[in-house]
Amino acid sequence: MMKIIDYVIESTSKYIEQMPKEVRKKNGQFFTSKETALFMASLFDLSPSLKEISILDPGAGSGILAAALVQRIIDIDKIKEIKITCYETNDDILELLNKNLSWIKDNSPLKIEYKVLKDNYITSQTLEYNDMLGTCIEPEKYDLIIGNPPYLKIGKMAEEALAMQDICYGAPNLYFLFMEMASFNLVDNGELVFIIPRSWTSGAYFRKFREKFLREVALKHIHLFISRDKVFDKETVLQETIIVKAKKGFDNSNNITITTTNTNFDFDSKTVFEAPYEMVVSGKHKYVFLVTDQEEADTIEKVNEWKDTLPTLGLKMKTGLTVDFRNRDILRDAAEENAVPLFYSQHIKSGKVKFPIGKNNEYILTEQKGLLQENTNYLFVKRFTAKEEKRRLQCGVYLAKKYPTYNVISTQNKINFITGLQGLSDCLVYGLYVVMNSTLYDNYYRILNGSTQVNATEINSMPIPPISCIENMGRELIKLKDMSEENCDEILGRCMYV
Q1: Residues 158 and 222 in one domain
Q2: I want to staple 474 with a disulfide (CB 3.0 to 4.6 A). Which of 9, 369, 393, 430 is the partner?
Q3: Which DSSP string corresponds to 319-337?
Q4: Could you list the residue range(s) of the whole structural domain that residue 484 is in?
Q5: How many C-beta atoms surround the C-beta of residue 413 within 10 A?
């Protein structure tokens, strides 16, 4: 007889073949592969003492994840009864979901009850989640929650965002609202396993969510996919995706298991690393560091020995001021009276800032104060790099004395710059370059943030050496006149072990 998971996978494949990709993408539908679904199901701790178990799949789609979990429960042959609740609002797939669940019920050796709620998973629980008048006295809770939620940005005034205002900042993404609501829906000691983008692990937009979510649950297992485009079955999703297992109830006394595979079908060859909880979940912003091996753990430990940050030293990384495509009328290709330099990431070359380079629109003619900044020393850092590039942190030293004819300059918003309450000395700028251009610091940032964007908020929160040490490193770099990563590593190494 056909296994439950195989039946559901086969019926889903037929659906995918006849449903246009554009429609699925619009709805945030990305179907989980069989291998991934079974791996996710394997992460749950199924107590043999339980004879009856309740399962929730809050964005069920065709029911692949629920089917994988049922298959796991059947295979261990301990639990006798399963109650399944699935949320799904998409009419295109509801018929398939009901058909699959009916087949599972009829072909399972266990007693299975199921219900499909054609309701918005978030807004249908607004009253309960916010403990408002009219709420259900005993909202339904579940032992296990398994999910592949929709990956969709929504407006800050969307119903879902208004329903969960306590964790929203700016325009949220549906996937982390599903995660938090799942935490709300868990019984004490219940477990959730979700496949989601990595983006929530750092960044300002997710801070409120992280802080609340990580107060309610303890992370137990995180799985990373090295390849960005080989996670979902017959789909291409170009963002870093992870699998997260969490348990209801806060407990940071144990390690977090972090595993990695290249794709969605090679789980038998995964790497495994046990990382201390407080190394993974760290700092006042509750960043989640995805530490996959001992070398990365050593990186975290080394950098975390520093107690300062840029702000504690009177410094700050900011994002460039000018959005060029919104200000085309004030941009100029060549120098003219009252026009000042507009610096782009292309001006950063081999650790220095070179200007002009013959680029279009590299001057700006304006009196708008919000687009201009003092012509003083800065460290420029590219905001965006290609995934394949060796380094994420790519910096250039900007010295005001090289451009003495200008009182002010401007920076395009695709670069960041480090400035201070007072002007940065040459030594300080070069010293900051040593830190930012080191292998150690670049690796630390990559562990923290898997995207190709360098976020000022994250850099401002990262530990950094004392200012005297930074200045001494800057003096050494100026003397050596070697801006290479290898030289920066040597200089930083000498500073760390003094």
Answers
A1: yes
A2: 430
A3: E-SB-GGG-GGGEESS--T
A4: 311-496
A5: 14
